[in-house]
Amino acid sequence: MFLECIKEGFKLTHRNWQVILLKIIVTIISIAALFIFVGIPIAVAIIFMSIDIASLKDTLLNIMSSDPLEILSKYLGLAVIVFTGLILYITVVSVVVLYVFGGMLGVLRNASLDSKYRFSFSSFFAEAKKLFFPLVWLFSVALFVITAVIIIFGILTGVGFFTVHALSTPDSTLSVFVVSFFTMLVIFLSLVAGLFSVIFTVYASIALAVERKGVSDSFKKTWNFVMNKPGAFLFYILLVICVVALNIVLWLLGASFRLIPMIGLIVSIPYQIILHVFQSYLAVVMWSSLIVYFIKGTKHTEYKATYDI
Length: 309
Known about the structure:
Layout: H1 2-15, H2 18-48, H3 56-65, H4 68-113, H5 121-167, H6 173-211, H7 215-228, H8 231-258, H9 263-297
């Protein structure tokens, strides 16, 4: 039923095309925020500290070859300004992105459960307001768990290497084999754990939007869902592969335009705009498909399905 869910994902996206427009606006806001919170402070700091732009390369080379304490004392003000601006930028963009993300999930959830539902900005902002703080809490918990997993794997790696070196001769063939095998095993398990965490968090955010329950209930619902429907992992991976493959093809096509003298530069600018719109479109299709898959997979009471996954 993967293909059927993707087809419905396209239909949901077309019925709620305004979400694509909002995602594009978020991108514009992100670029503007980068200029305001990072670009302008850096420019002001450079002017205030009388740094010559023309000799900026030589200045950077001198900085790299200088004493770290001397660099810190001389450019501490610039570092503080850049760091503060970067923190403000990340905060503002994170709030805007998460707010729009919540509105998108809520709108797509309503549209998937009610064929008569039509997009409205009042509904979008109501959903965004309703889901913003629960999503903040959900992603905070997920980030904490992922960080804990990384720390645990790091500790296990350190203990493993110490144990291997303590119990074997460093130059022996067996020691080299054991260290190599253990390293590859830790890397593989780390990748698997990381991928599982990302996919689990994605479905947990969908469960939060669909079920209208708390964060802990969303995690429980997601756990039961992925355990009963292990194909959920495959579905997500297939969607990501398809999106990445399409982006690579489109990027290569855009790169070929830039090889054409003069005309290539003129064509590449509108092409980049169209490419970004298409990327936003694919992102909404992907989330729509995942929501449909989750709703059908959990047999949501409000969804009138005629078949099972």
